[in-house]
Amino acid sequence: ETGVTQTPRHLVMGMTNKKSLKCEQHLGHNAMYWYKQSAKKPLELMFVYSLEERVENNSVPSRFSPECPNSSHLFLHLHTLQPEDSALYLCASSQDNPDNYGYTFGSGTRLTVV
Amino acid sequence: AQKITQTQPGMFVQEKEAVTLDCTYDTSDPSYGLFWYKQPSSGEMIFLIYQGSYDQQNATEGRYSLNFQKARKSANLVISASQLGDSAMYFCAMREENDKLSFGAGTTVTVRA
Fold first, then answer.
1. Which of A68, A66, A86, A89 is nearest to A77 (CA)?
2. Phi, psi (5° rounding) for residue B92?
3. Strand intervals (E) in A2-108
4. Tell me: the pLDDT tens digits for A79-111?
5. Is the dihedral of CA B19, B35, B107, B61 positive or negative?
6. Are the beta carbons of A2 and B37 separated by less than 8 Å?
7. How does pLDDT run across A25-45, given as a tens digit for each residue?
8. 3-state class of A48 per DSSP?
9. Is B57 exposed, middle or buried (0-12, 13-18, 19+ CB in 10 A)?
10. pLDDT at position A103, please?
11. Does residue B76 sit in helix, strand or coil?
């Protein structure tokens, strides 16, 4: 366990389904991130929350909707996804203006859209 | 433009030998941080080593060392005495002054017995 917990680990969903990914950290960090990792592509930053406010949305389609109810929890709500959205979704946390240890990542949710 | 470039998609290394993974970066920020992460097949990203742009010495963490050449904007990772458990994907990443972490495409390392 890294200190950042993601659930579920695996998710298969149809294109008309609605599901949510959950991320939880108890490291005392005040910034949280969603990354998408597709095959053979660099990790793509999707959303950044700092002090529970969204500070970055890298032009992510509206079918992905993040929610950060408090500094320890981050959700990614999914609806009407496309097959190309199948990927590993990684959550990370850090201390804003982090020291030299960068981000702490969760184990990811492997999403398959059918 | 790509901020982090890893030119080696995959590498094979014999057990107990050393392997060097290449990483070059592009930034105009005077202050930045460079990281290497390991990603096994299970998916989690494991922090390995960090180098600050103002650090005078190359970072070392156990069998990992970072060959930092600032003028050439390179931050190669050296894994010494490779073990079978080192087989994984390795990512180079950079944190700029905006605190965002950008990743390279990764290098797959396969350690042979």
1. A66
2. -95, 140
3. 4-7, 10-13, 18-25, 31-37, 44-50, 53-57, 64-70, 73-79, 87-94, 104-105
4. 999 999 999 999 999 886 655 557 899 999 999
5. positive
6. no
7. 989 998 999 999 998 778 899
8. strand
9. exposed
10. 87
11. strand
Nearest CA in chain B to A99: B33
Task: Identify whether the C-beta of residue B69 lies closer than 8 Å to the C-beta of residue B51.
Answer: no
Question: B38: closest CA among A86, A99, A2, A72?
Answer: A2
Q: How far is B93 from B90, CA to CA, in rounded Å? A: 10
Instruction: Give me Rg for the CA atoms of chain A.
Output: 13
Residues of A in contact with B93 (CB under 8 A): 102
Average pLDDT, chain A: 89
Best mutation target among B99, B102, B103, B107 (most A Cβ atoms within 10 Å) is B99
